[in-house]
Every structure is written in C-alpha cells, then in structure tokens.
Amino acid sequence: MKQKINSTVNRIRLNKVHRLLKKVNVYSEEFQLCSDIELQAKAESFKVMLSESKMTLEQLLPEAYAVVREASRRVLGMYPKDVQVMGAIVLHQGNIAEMQTGEGKTLTATMPLYLNALTGKGAYLITTNDYLAKRDFLEMQPLYEWLGLSSSLGFVDIVDYEYGPGEKRAIFEHDIIYTTNGRLGFDYLIDNLADNLENKFLPDLNFAIIDEVDSIILDAAQTPLVISGAPRVQSNLYHTVKRFVETIDDEDIKLKKSKKEVWLTDKGIQAANKYFNVSNIYDEPYFDLVRNINLAIRAQYLFDINLDYFIQNGEIILIDRITGRMLPGTKMQAGLHQALEAKEEVEISKDLSVMATITFQNLFKQFDNFSGMTATGKLGEEEFFELYSKIVVQVPTDIPIQRIDYADKVFINGEDKNSAILDAVVAYQNKKRPVLLITRTAESAEAFSATLFQMDIPNNLLIAQNVAKEAQMIAEAGYLSAVTVATSMAGRGTDIKLDKDVHELGGLAVIISEHMENSRVDRQLRGRAGRQGDPGSSQIYISLDDYLVQRWGDGKLQNNQILNDYDSNSLENSRVFQHRVKHSVNKAQRVSEEQGAKMREMANEYEKSISIQRELVYAERDRILEMIQSDDFNIDKLAQDVFEYALNKEVHLTQESLMHYIYNNISFKFEGKMTSIRTQSKEAAIQSLMHQFHEQMAENKQKLKNDYFYVNFVRKAILKAVDSGWIDQVDNLQQLKASVGNRQNGQRNAIFEYHKVALDAYDEMVIKIKRNMIRNLCQSMITYDEYDDLVIHFP
Ligand code: ADP
Ligand code: MG
C-alpha cells in the first residue's frame, strides 16, 4: 500500500520534472549547430540578464542546461542523458535526487552548478572525502573552463598545508568550488575566528549540491565538527562518582537502552543524596556532581565494551557504529569519554574545551539553498523532510536495472554462516565470476581475506584506509575471476565496470556478510552490482550472531531452548525457523534505524539553541569588524552602557565601591583622589567613570604610537572579549547538554529546560562580553616585540 502511494507521488513529481526536460530538449538541435564561440558567449549573456533582472534562474534553466549539455558533448565526449537532465532539474529545485550508482551523478551536477554560478555568488559541490572531490573536480574542470566559468578545488591537497595570506580567499572567489563537508565545516568555523576583515575568506554561502547526501547529512550528522582549545579544568569526581554508581541497583535507575537513555529514579536520587551526604543533588551547588553522575551512569549502562568501544594499550578506542571500524583519536565530548575511562579504570585523559563547533546539519543550513544526490534517498525521505523540508525524487535509470537481489540466507550462528559465505565465494570463483564480499567490520574483512588466501584464492582487501588506492582496487572488482573483500565504506563513489566476458557469467556477485545498521546502507551495497543495466546479483547472509541482533534484538530467539535441542542443519532448512530469524533481524534493524533517527532528531533539537546563538554572535562579530574598519565603532557609547549597567546593580553608591570598580575595570593606577569621584547621583558617578576611562584611553593612545596601532589595538581588544565570551558559552552549552540530557525525572522536559538555561546564559554572556571589552581596552598591557610589532597582553 505504502509502496503504491509512494510510486504515485513520485510519478506526479516526475511529471513536473518531465515538463521542464522537454523545454531543455527544445534547444538540443539548435545548439548542436552553434559554433563554440556562440555557446561560450552564453554565460556572459546569461549573467547580464540575471544582473539586470530580466530573467530568473528558473526561466534560464532550460537554455542554460542545454548549453552545458552541448558543451559536455564537445569537451568531455559525454552527452548528458534525459535522466541526468531530470536529476539536474531536481537538484536546482533544492531537493534530493535519487539516482542509482553509475548513472552519472558527477556529470549531472554540472548543470545546476553552472546555472547557479551564473549569479556570481558561488556554487559548491560537496562530497565525502578529498579523493572524490579532487577526482570529480579534475574531471569536470575542462567543461567549466570551456563554458567561461572559473572553478577550483576548495583546498590545497597537501598534508598539513599552511595557507599563505589571501590564498584561501583567492580559492573561494571561484565560481564553482569542489570540496568536502569536513573541509568546508572547518573553513566556516575558522573564518569566524578571523580577527581582521582581511583574514576572512569565506563568502556568503549561496548554493550547494551534496553528493552522497544521506551519508553526509544523516549518518554523519551526529558527529559535530569541533575545534578544541585549552584543556578544561579537570573534574576530580570521575572516580568518586564511579564508586557510587557501582553501589546502585536496577531500581535506582530507569533504563531505555534502545533509546540510549538512562536516568536516576526517585529511589536513585535518594541513594545519591545519602551517598554524597547532601539534601538534594539537584540543588544548584551540586551541578557538577549531577553532571558527573549522569555521565557515569551513561558510561555504565549505555556503552558496551567490544560493541561500542575497545580497550587497546590502556586506551579507550571508540567503534563507529555504522561501519564497525575503530576510531582511534576520536573522543566523545563533555566528559563522557573520561567517564568511560573511569568505568574501565584506565588512565583518564584530558578533556579539551570546545572553541567552536557546528554540526553538518547546521553547516548546510547556512546555504541559501542546497540539494543532494544519492542512490539511496527514498529510505531517508521522512528525515530529509522533517529536518530540511526536502523531498526525494526518484529519477528512473537510463536502462532498467537487471540486478537480482536474492532473499536473505539464514543461519543459526556466525560460524555456519561464514563457512557458507566462503563456499559461495569459491563457487563463483570456479566459474570466474567476479565476487565482492562486503563485511561490517574491518576485522571481519581481514579474517575472510586471510582465510581465502589460505584456500589459495587471491583477493584484494579494502578496509577504508587509503581512499585513492582503494578506488583503483574497487574499480577492478568487475574483472574476470576478481575476488574483493571490503568494508561498507571502502571505495565508495567509485564505479565498478565489468569485463566484457563477465556479462555472460551474470555480472558482479555481491555478498554481504550481515545486514548493516541501516537499510539505506544495505541498499547502497547491493547497488555496487548492476550499474547502468549491467547484470549482477546481491545476497545478504544473516545469523543470530549478527551485530544487529546482538545490539538491538530482543533476545527471545537466542534464548529459545529449541535452538539447543535441534541440530543446526535441520533448523536452517526449516522454513518456520528461517522466517523467525528473518523477522528477528528485520526487527533489530528497524529498532536500529529508529534509534538513529531519534538520536539525530534529539541532536537537532539540542543544536537549535547553540545554532541561533552562533548566528547572532557571528553576525555581531562581522558587524564589529566592519565598524572598526570604517571607524564607526562608538567606544564611548559602549563604556557608557557598561558603566550604567554596573551602577544600576549597586544599591548604595559609595566612594569605596566606585574605587573598587575602577581598579577592577578601568585603571590599576588610579591614585585615589577620593574627591574626584562623585557619588551624589548615578549620573555624576558615571561621569566620573567616563572621565577615568578617557584618561586611561589617552594613556594607551600615547603608548600606541600611531593610528594604525591604535585601531589594531581596539579591534583586538574588542574581538578578544567577543571570542572568549563565545568560546566559554559554547563550552558551557556543551556541558549543559550532557548534564540536562538525562534529567527527565520529575516530569521535566529536558530540551525545554536546556533551551531556557541556554537563553539565560546567552544574556549573561552578552553582558560579560561588553564588560570585558572595556576591561580589555583599559587594562591590557601594551608592549612591542623585537620587530617593533604590537604585542598585547590581555588582563
Ligand atoms: P555515480 O556517481 O552516479 O555512481 P559517476 O558519476 O561516477 O556515477 O559516473 C559513472 C560513469 O558513467 C563514469 O565513468 C562516467 O564518466 C560515465 N558517464 C556519466 N554520464 C555519462 C553520459 N551521459 N554518457 C557517457 N558516459 C557517462
Ligand atoms: Mg558518484
């Protein structure tokens, strides 16, 4: 039923796309007759029409796409097919184009990139790794050049490259940029730490197309980009709290494992109060204690050794839950990693404070418009719509798909399953049919590969280590007799072309050693075979030992006595049993998917506060930079505001309190001519403070020698206050999230609570920033280094 509605909806959407396609096709013959010069001149005339508002992008689309198409034929020797033009239309509309592997998404993207770059505001193609960005850029660059648009890779492809002044800005001045989500995210954060307008390099983000969009904005959405700063003051509570957690029992906590939630029950709170000898751990002074208790119970109950992390050489190594790969060097934020370390009694590492952070979801929301392409969009449609208001349009393949997707093969345990997988590989190998065996973890791929070698079957092992090398290896997976063992992420984005003789043998055979965390990934893997109407097959093997069942299964089937009473052979042949295992695996996968979606939704909810605040702070920062540049920044007004606010809080103005204020905020050297401070009225007192302020600034100005240094000094002092305030705030919010996340007790709505506290903290931050601006202006030490460059020591 649902399927039927889906396909009807998709047909309606495609009809609209079709109408536009026809308009594109109208130009085909005409442009074929055009000279190169005529076609190349089109970009300029399009730009003029746009800038004079004679045409909109929508009106230009058919002609512009037709130009790119004809140009592609002449320059690249490929003429974009109707289905590619359809995909290109969906992309311009800011939606998700589902196009199968091998349909030519790289070429498809050139049409909307060209069209949107005509505005002069920049167009981005964003993909998952440097290798793919560079590959696609190099392949398409000649086309853009011919068409009269400039294009560039968004980074210099040299490890640890140090960019010279202005170099990044020059990169981002190109019309079309190819880069990765990670690179762009860091660029965005770094750009907003620039202490000078000249050091800013990133233009306003206009239009982006995200390749493999589901893996970037759904799967990777939970791992935010983080720029770390100084080590945080380390809590010494990890061990103490851990000992408390070891004393509690099931009634002290409420555990919703499938939702990754755990919190103290009333009984647990009582126990904690008693253990720590406090009246109520939720009272204000125990904020840090509660935070640590929450971290410790999460570490204890929600993270399983060998499923979520390993211990290696006395260190906790996280495991990527989607790929099963180890993630050395990756740490969980805000103390959770340290809580895990305490749980496992390994040495507790430094918790670094967060200087700047953004999730990919919010990064892409910075664009005026973005769209995405992927072979597996439909299964993520609900989320695309909920999080980004984007629909998924399934673009038909150029030639019908011939691949056979077999039903799952069922086994009781992993051992039986693995030997059946090896048998299957051998059988294909005997017929010289190429086979691609895909596993969830690198360990498992390594084990299969080694066993195959022992059986004298040469094979290529790909475990997502060297992207470029693996791209080359996977491209060979379609050769006669090829055996390739790979993890799910290895070699992605690379087309597997078949040897001529392989077609008759049935094409590439894909064997998948277990269902992945998410059915989207399953589909992606099946799609490794059967590109562009090639023959091929895919088959998933399952057993009750599979990760999904272990992680998310309800355990009913595993604990069933029947399993022990029957021999595995007859069970595995029983239809009823097969059915039940399939059901069990499917259900575990559904739980896993729901869990993933829920986590992303939560992350998104939490991210709202920080994202609104980030935008406000970054905008204000830019405003300040511009004002200082143009000498519009009114320091007096700022000082006046700050002093007014400070004095408003004083009930009694005394000479002493004012002296104190001056020492702390304006001048160390105030010599205490009491009579010069007037306390008769608030206005008078403010005037006194302003007087002190002006004297101090005059003194600074003298030390600063000239206007250039003076402006520099003011800018740095002001920005320093903004940045320190914001960095503290980011770090605070990060910690607050960790503490509030589990405070569901007492009917409190954790997210509501979080936003409320976050908002209060924002107001406080603004006040603090202003106060620190004055303090930085007044109380910084001004010196010069041996090259006579200004050095400022902030108070
Ligand atoms: P996808 O990203 O959709 O999996 P690619 O962009 O990697 O596919 O393209 C797959 C292959 O098809 C590439 O070798 C590409 O050069 C080729 N190709 C794409 N479009 C065309 C076309 N219109 N005509 C001929 N070959 C094409
Ligand atoms: Mg691709």
TrEMBL record:
<feature type="binding site">
    <location>
        <position position="495"/>
    </location>
    <ligand>
        <name>ATP</name>
    </ligand>
</feature>
<keyword id="KW-0963">Cytoplasm</keyword>
<keyword id="KW-0067">ATP-binding</keyword>
<comment type="similarity">
    <text>Belongs to the SecA family.</text>
</comment>
<dbReference type="InterPro" id="IPR036266">
    <property type="entry name" value="SecA_Wing/Scaffold_sf"/>
</dbReference>
<dbReference type="GO" id="GO:0008564">
    <property type="term" value="F:protein-exporting ATPase activity"/>
</dbReference>
<comment type="subunit">
    <text>Monomer and homodimer. Part of the essential Sec protein translocation apparatus which comprises SecA, SecYEG and auxiliary proteins SecDF. Other proteins may also be involved.</text>
</comment>
<dbReference type="GO" id="GO:0005886">
    <property type="term" value="C:plasma membrane"/>
</dbReference>
<feature type="domain" description="Helicase ATP-binding">
    <location>
        <begin position="86"/>
        <end position="249"/>
    </location>
</feature>
<dbReference type="GO" id="GO:0006605">
    <property type="term" value="P:protein targeting"/>
</dbReference>
<dbReference type="InterPro" id="IPR000185">
    <property type="entry name" value="SecA"/>
</dbReference>
<dbReference type="Pfam" id="PF07517">
    <property type="entry name" value="SecA_DEAD"/>
</dbReference>
<dbReference type="InterPro" id="IPR014018">
    <property type="entry name" value="SecA_motor_DEAD"/>
</dbReference>
<dbReference type="InterPro" id="IPR036670">
    <property type="entry name" value="SecA_X-link_sf"/>
</dbReference>
<dbReference type="InterPro" id="IPR022490">
    <property type="entry name" value="SecA2"/>
</dbReference>
<feature type="domain" description="SecA family profile">
    <location>
        <begin position="1"/>
        <end position="573"/>
    </location>
</feature>
<keyword id="KW-0547">Nucleotide-binding</keyword>
<keyword id="KW-0811">Translocation</keyword>
<keyword id="KW-0472">Membrane</keyword>
<dbReference type="InterPro" id="IPR014001">
    <property type="entry name" value="Helicase_ATP-bd"/>
</dbReference>
<feature type="binding site">
    <location>
        <position position="84"/>
    </location>
    <ligand>
        <name>ATP</name>
    </ligand>
</feature>
<dbReference type="InterPro" id="IPR011130">
    <property type="entry name" value="SecA_preprotein_X-link_dom"/>
</dbReference>
<dbReference type="GO" id="GO:0043952">
    <property type="term" value="P:protein transport by the Sec complex"/>
</dbReference>
<dbReference type="Pfam" id="PF01043">
    <property type="entry name" value="SecA_PP_bind"/>
</dbReference>
<dbReference type="InterPro" id="IPR044722">
    <property type="entry name" value="SecA_SF2_C"/>
</dbReference>
<dbReference type="InterPro" id="IPR011115">
    <property type="entry name" value="SecA_DEAD"/>
</dbReference>
<keyword id="KW-0813">Transport</keyword>
<comment type="function">
    <text>Part of the Sec protein translocase complex. Interacts with the SecYEG preprotein conducting channel. Has a central role in coupling the hydrolysis of ATP to the transfer of proteins into and across the cell membrane, serving as an ATP-driven molecular motor driving the stepwise translocation of polypeptide chains across the membrane.</text>
</comment>
<keyword id="KW-1278">Translocase</keyword>
<dbReference type="GO" id="GO:0065002">
    <property type="term" value="P:intracellular protein transmembrane transport"/>
</dbReference>
<feature type="domain" description="Helicase C-terminal">
    <location>
        <begin position="420"/>
        <end position="574"/>
    </location>
</feature>
<dbReference type="Pfam" id="PF21090">
    <property type="entry name" value="P-loop_SecA"/>
</dbReference>
<dbReference type="Pfam" id="PF07516">
    <property type="entry name" value="SecA_SW"/>
</dbReference>
<dbReference type="GO" id="GO:0017038">
    <property type="term" value="P:protein import"/>
</dbReference>
<dbReference type="GO" id="GO:0031522">
    <property type="term" value="C:cell envelope Sec protein transport complex"/>
</dbReference>
<dbReference type="GO" id="GO:0005524">
    <property type="term" value="F:ATP binding"/>
</dbReference>
<keyword id="KW-1003">Cell membrane</keyword>
<dbReference type="InterPro" id="IPR027417">
    <property type="entry name" value="P-loop_NTPase"/>
</dbReference>
<protein>
    <recommendedName>
        <fullName>Protein translocase subunit SecA</fullName>
        <ecNumber>7.4.2.8</ecNumber>
    </recommendedName>
</protein>
<keyword id="KW-0653">Protein transport</keyword>
<dbReference type="GO" id="GO:0005829">
    <property type="term" value="C:cytosol"/>
</dbReference>
<dbReference type="InterPro" id="IPR011116">
    <property type="entry name" value="SecA_Wing/Scaffold"/>
</dbReference>
